[in-house]
Amino acid sequence: MAERLASSASLLPSAASPSSSTRRAAVASGLRLRPSPSRFSQAARRVRGGAGAAGVVPRLRVVRCMAASEAAQLKSAREDIKEILKTTYCHPILVRLGWHDSGTYDKNIEEWPQRGGADGSLRFDPELSHGANAGLTNALKLIQPIKDKYPGITYADLFQLASATAIEEAGGPKLPMKYGRVDITAPEQCPPEGRLPDAGPRLPAEHLREVFYRMGLDDKVWDDARNLKKKEHVCLCVADNLRCFVQEIVALSGAHTLGRSRPDRSGWGKPETKYTKDGPGEPGGQSWTAEWLKFDNSYFKDIKEQRDQELLVLPTDAALFDDPSFKVYAEKYAEDQEAFFKDYAEAHAKLSNLGAKFDPPEGFSLDDDKGAVATEEKAVADPAPTSDTNGAGPQPEPFVAAKYSYKKRELSDTMKQKIRAEYEGLGGSPNKPMKSNYFLNIMIVIAGLAFLTSLAGN
């Protein structure tokens, strides 16, 4: 896939294992740091040695965490990304960062992380040095300060968050993203080179099909063919899913509406055009569209017309209108931006999840607060009522003065309700005074008189 570049930045040093200060910060914030392979091996040897010598296996303490990333930190990081986008115009390269981290997924490999995908592996030198990732050190340089500021999020989530935020801030659709991706921990876990799309293959349409099929975007086609027995049903189901598969390829290709290609990095495009010679960001490169920082359907319009020689058209771009099955959707998106946005949002979210290992397994959304609210309520909820209430229902929660004391002159509504409940529990009501206990009143009077008599005698 041809490179899309934003502002320039210096190269980022290769990622390394967390420093001692980082580990202390992580422990203080409740995070779980996975040990490096070498330390893990040393610990295992010590355990085996201890067991053989003394016959006792040392106890290992297991630390559990709620999720791979913290939702609150992801939300804050999203706001920081928006600020970076306003000043550096790095929308295209952040989109590319997320795509290239997830686009290495191979559906034929079941084991994680060998299967590739959205696992944060792109931060390591072995993968960063792949030819298709030329220039992505600039993207890492831009977002590394955000990762340092929010240690409670994973690189895998940060890459996809940055990509989705860039699309939305450029005027694109709202993406149904989920988070909780787990990071790989060592460079040895990076996928091999050659899994990403090529900009100029010999057979562009077939190349796109092959690459996206390897990513598993059309698994349902073959699953349905295996599971259904009636031939006519198989044909209909396969046809429907093939249409979905082709639709995803074309929709995702529409992301080229953002960004530029530079010949010194990807081998494609002009050194500069009238649309790129003055930036914004670092000048130069050749864009697919005139407004290459705006996400819309102009990519399909421009490729269809091909009237402007200043705009880039790669072999894989031209294939969208040359291939009959691709052309159906390319024509549709050129005419209907709303349809393009809808299909792109679904395809982008699907691409961002490829190969990812989620913790929690179902992931979580930043735009759905139901889960967070439920967690908070569960943390402060009172214990369930016991069975000794004789069917009277839940009992009022115990009164804790500190819970209602906010240095206010007037009692809170909650406090007023609690006082009223206590008053009514003793037999009183707002409409009538509480019944007097005459026996108790007589005893108090007698005690008072006895006390006064003793004082007078003294």
- Write down the overall mean pLDDT: 77
The helix tally amounts to: 18
Largest sheet: 2 strands, antiparallel
As residue ranges, the low-confidence spans are: 1-66, 219-226, 228-241, 370-393, 398-409
How would you sum up this structure, described in words?
There is one protein chain. This protein has 458 residues and is mainly α. The chain is built from 18 helices and two strands. The termini are far apart. Residues 1-66, 219-226, 228-241, 370-393 and 398-409 have low confidence and may be disordered.
In short, what is this structure?
The protein is mainly alpha-helical and 458 residues long. 49% of the residues lie in helices and 1% in strands.
Give the arrangement of secondary structure elements.
Layout: H1 20-28, H2 37-54, H3 71-88, H4 91-102, H5 125-128, H6 136-149, H7 155-169, H8 204-214, H9 219-227, H10 231-253, E1 260-261, E2 286-287, H11 298-305, H12 315-322, H13 324-335, H14 337-352, H15 370-380, H16 401-404, H17 413-425, H18 438-457
Antiparallel strand pairs: 1-2
Helix pairs in contact: 3-6, 3-7, 4-6, 4-7, 8-12, 9-10, 10-13, 10-14, 11-13, 12-13, 13-14
Defining key terms:
458 residues; 2 strands; disordered N terminus
